[in-house]
Amino acid sequence: MSTSTHVGDIARSASTLRGYLHGLPGVDRVGAEARAAALATRSIKTTAKAWAIDLAIRMVDLTTLEGSDTPGKVRALCAKARRPDPTDPSCPSVAAVCVYPSMVPTAVAALDGSAIHVASVATAFPSGQAPLSVKLADTRAAVADGADEIDMVLNRGAFLSGRYLDAYEEILAVKEACGSAHLKVILETGELATYDNVRRASWLAMLAGADFIKTSTGKITPAATLPVTLVMLEAVRDFRAAAGRQVGVKPAGGIRTSKDALRYLVLVNETVGDDWLDPDWFRFGASTLLNDLLLQRSKLATGRYSGPDYVTLD
Amino acid sequence: MRAEARLPVRKTYKLFIGGAFPRSESGRSYVVTSVNGDFLANAALGSRKDVREAVVAARKAFPGWSGATAYNRGQILYRVAEMLEGRRDQFVAAAAVDAAIDRWVWYAGWADKLAQVHGNANPVAGPYFNLSAPEPTGVVGIVAPPDSALLGLVSVLAPAIVSGNTAVVLAAEERPLPAITLAEVLATSDLPGGVVNLITGRVAETAPWLAGHLDVNALDLTGVADPDLAVTLERDAAENLKRVRRPAEVPVDWNAEPGIDRMVAYLETKTVWHPKGV
Amino acid sequence: MRFQYAPAPESSSIVDIRSSYGLFIGGEFVDAKDGELFKTINPASEDVLAEVTAAGASDVDTAVAAARDAYEHRWRDLPGRDRAKYLYRIARLIQERSRELAVLESIDNGKPIRESRDVDLPLVAAHFFYYAGWADKLSYAGFGPEPRPLGVAAQVIPWNFPLLMLAWKIAPALAAGNTVVLKPAETTPLTALHFAEICRQADLPPGVVNIVTGAGETGRLLVEHPGVDKVAFTGSTEVGRAIARAVAGTRKRLTLELGGKAANIVFDDAPVDQAVEGIVNGIFFNQGHVCCAGSRLLVQESVAEEVLDALKRRMATLRVGDPLDKNTDVGAINSAAQLARIRELSDAGTAEGAERWSAPCVVPDKGFWFVPTIFTGVSQAHRIAREEIFGPVLSVLTFRTPAEAVEKANNTPYGLSAGVWSEKGSRILAIADKLRAGVVWANTFNKFDPTSPFGGYKESGYGREGGRHGLEAYLAR
Questions:
Q1: CATH number for the C12-258+457-476 domain, one of 3.40.50.1760, 3.40.190.10, 3.40.50.2000, 3.40.605.10?
Q2: Which of C1, C278, C306 is the closest to A31 by Cβ?
Q3: pLDDT band at residue A5, thresholds of 50, 70 and 90?
Q4: How confident is the model over A15-30, as pLDDT tens digits?
Q5: Class of C263-442 in CATH
Q6: How many alpha carbons lie under 13 Å from residue A273 in its C-beta half-sphere?
Q7: Domain that holds residue B132
Q8: Does the annotation mark C292 as catalytic?
Q9: What are the CA-CA distances from residue A76 to residues A80, A94, A311 (Å)?
Q10: Phi, psi dihedral angles at C229 (to 5 degrees)
């Protein structure tokens, strides 16, 4: 792997892009999973735990992506995003709210005046199985309605059939349609199946201009896992060293407890360090996680275990 | 106050399928008596549908059980022995129970040794790494011996599952109660549901469904006393080329050391070639 | 670093360390007849933990006699099934008291609690479970239809994995029907002494296991005792050589597990991130106090710079400190003597022209500490490429071709282990074929399992521990 990478050169043809992606170092599955498992044994207590919980709250992209979403549901979610703990004003707000394009106007209105971002999924989320023109229109509509972050899906059909350049050019096009909105590319790692593929897809997305790479849509299992996130963190680390640009990472789906969230933060800390320990560079795509973070925050503050009656359900 | 003998709470004997204890879907039962003819219980009279559900459960449990490490299987089987030990007085004949527990412990210790005794590298005449390793065959249907309700049952069941197979067992028809008590032990031993499934009832009625089932990989006819039935079952089993273990030609001495053939009978050998070259 | 981990201490109150210990002979703790007392300390703090008895000649004599008595009257003729049950009990008791033993091990040895809790103790229990299952299956082990035990085994173990080395020695010996007299290392006697209590809890017949504590002299007396049928030693090649001389001409069978200077070979097509983990694990796990440590990194020249940059980046996240802190990665050096040796050899490395780099770790004031260190620009002729340092010090050499890697890897009197990193399976197998090492790890390192035989070629010793092969040392031909 060279230390100075000319991005344009790599994607100048289907075969050079393929050659580059297949020339990346392989990932030994057993070794990667063992490293993630070892880091999961870190014991985060007291002051470190309190700091990490608050940081995790600030990194949450509070999400609702259901067919049954309504303006009422989205407004309730936005209220929770602004003030996760109604009894404690010192509790930080979340980073963003993540919704379907049709709900963007509601979210934008509900979050007006706050610093919370409005992230919209786009490009025929979750499957991405639609013509490119539809996917771009989907994106433009969300941006026009005020979304300042777009979570697109990688074209897995193209990727898994080896049409890397097609997948790459699609991301380029969506990035352009984003305008000033920042772009997350969802790799859907559960469908990519191997860590080698996750590494390649990460690089493909970053070469095409992704601001963030995201593990999953949350609509299939497995969604985010520690080892998959480890491989993606290694990829963003290596990409910055090679291309001089920092890209963020967002694990999404299946992260339900504070314990999980803290394990991800440990992974970030020991793989890429301080520069990524910030909501601008690391997010959690989650919904139930927030309440568990609040329960843990309360336990640390009061010394008592709390319960579901003491956090809001929206 | 007059002292009264305490009235015991009697147990209902049901089937054991997928880690749970359902009644027969047929709703039928049959009378089980002691050797003296005294009423002991109404045991569930298993039907073909019960057999069908048991096979489904066994198949579902196979990937997890065969995918567990040998060490893990050994630990679980040893735990079964610990639980059995705690229930010694629930079984009638103390000596047979002790022998059954010890037999179970013997098999538990084989889990992480079978591959070393029944697998090896092969010195092929070329630059290849060549390894033969045993793997479990899949779902094993077992007809338990009628003559030894607990020790005989343990001696046909443990060797089948220690290597990672899952089992559907047809309990001894006349004396099924020890089998159900064993099932209760299995259910409290961390053994995943579906690894062992137990059907009580008329063997002549249920065995053909097991023998002809295309999703069963092997068949142990040890407990089939009727030679004509045994031949019919073996023929039925040929449809999907099940690995069949015929009834013993001479009566089995269940107290003798078993040897490894009951484990080997349900193993496949996988041989992998890999070139060696920089 | 913004994400600081707060202290996460494992409580030591779980273990009850007595102020003094006698010898465990014939099922009882007894005072020495002609031995002395010595102290064992906590290497992380230099605090005294307990007084321990050094067995003298008369005590060793008593212990061997007790083992002989137990062998002839209470163990040899016991059915294998019963020996199995005792060993299963011991395995279960170890599992039940696992945390307590792990804490004790970390306190006496200096290794991080995460390692003793997650690696040492599970392996100890697993070892007893595995060999328990062989006790009544010896005729299937490939050593004849009715293999017999040897008798009384004298076993001397090192300080780097005290309880695990005890398990590696005692489990197969007992399974095969032998009785034992075991001497733990003088700086780490405590888990062996607590193991003696476990033997009592298991109702193990008295005299089957005897623990005689002491230093080199006690070991020599034990190994040279005429009443012993079998000697098993794990430790330095120097002492192993002396033992081999001492048993020459006697009837005693001998197995030795000695030092190593393993090559960890990283090819240009290695999975880099996992290879870096493997390098780190290979030499910094257990503070490098590992006979099979990957103490020589042989990296293909074309990727050397990349691998070393990644390695240094990774080493910067290693946490050196209090062994009882659950987040500690690298613990204390076991003794002042060992620390002195590591320093001496590291100084030699610099003196001979290699370039030294150490991880940026802050270590406590008290206790014995050595920061993980690598030397680059090392060649085969340097002392640090040839001599076993037994500490967290890696010597880095390069190679150009597979043949050169093999040649350098084998160019040592040692032959215990080796590592190979490549994504190409056929290359791994070809290289593994050519390495003269008893254990080859491919795309992993320092992996142990009771079913997997372990032992060396050449001056790393002879005999194997673990697996079916591990029974051979304890059975008569």
A1: 3.40.605.10
A2: C278
A3: low
A4: 999 999 999 999 999 9
A5: alpha beta
A6: 10
A7: 29-275
A8: no
A9: 6, 14, 14
A10: -95, -20
Is B240 inside a domain boundary?
Answer: yes
Whether B3 is covered by a domain: the verdict is: no
Residue C25 has pLDDT above 80, yes or no: yes
The predicted-structure confidence for B183-196, as pLDDT tens digits, reads as follows: 999 999 999 999 99
Confidence of residue B1 (pLDDT cuts 50, 70, 90): low
Q: Which entry of A214, A238, A260, A292 is annotated as an active-site residue?
A: A214
CB contact under 8 A, B113 and C425: no
Q: Per-domain residue ranges for chain A?
A: 29-310
Known catalytic membership, residue A214:
yes
Identify which of A1, A32, A44 has the shortest CB distance to residue C274.
Answer: A32
| Tokens standing for residue A115 | 């610093």
In chain A, the DSSP E strands lie at 60-63, 96-99, 117-121, 149-153, 182-186, 212-214, 248-250, 284-286
Query: Hey, which residues does A214 pair with through a beta bridge?
Result: A186, A250
Closest CA to C260 of C387, C371, C382: C387
Question: How is residue B211 written in tokens?
Answer: 């023998």
Helices (H), C144-215: 162-175, 190-201
In the sheet that holds C296-300, the strands lie side by side as C355-358, C373-376, C393-399, C296-300, C263-266, C417-421, C439-442
> d(Cα C286, Cα C294) in Å, to the nearest integer?
12
CATH class of A29-310: alpha beta
Evaluate whether residue B54 is within a structural domain: yes
Q: Is C467 on the interface with B (CB under 8 A)?
A: yes
Which of C105, C199, C291, C292 is catalytic? The answer is C291
Average pLDDT over all residues of chain B? 95
Give A7's pLDDT tier (boundaries 50, 70, 90).
Answer: low
b/e per residue, A157-195, with b = 16+ CB within 10 A?
Answer: ebbeeebbbebbbbbebbbebbeebbbbbbbbbbbbeeb
B–A contact: 3+ Cβ pairs < 8 A: no
Helix axes A132-144, A164-178, angle to 10 degrees: 20
Contact of A83 with A93, CB cutoff 8 Å: yes
Q: Give the confidence band of A4 by pLDDT, cuts at 50, 70, 90.
A: very low
- Give the start-to-end residue ranges of the domains of chain C: 12-258+457-476, 263-442
pTM metric for this prediction: 0.96
Which of the residues C140, C146, C433, C435 would you substitute to probe the B interface, choosing the one with the greatest number of B C-beta atoms within 10 Å? Answer: C140
B243 within a domain of the structure (yes/no): yes
* SS3 category, C6: coil
- Asked if the peptide bond before residue A227 counts as cis, ω within 30 degrees of 0, the response is no
For residue C271, list chain A residues with Cβ-Cβ distance below 8 A.
25-28, 31
Domain CATH number, residue B117: 3.40.605.10
Domains held by chain B: number: 1
Residues C223 and C263: their CA atoms lie apart, in Å, by 32
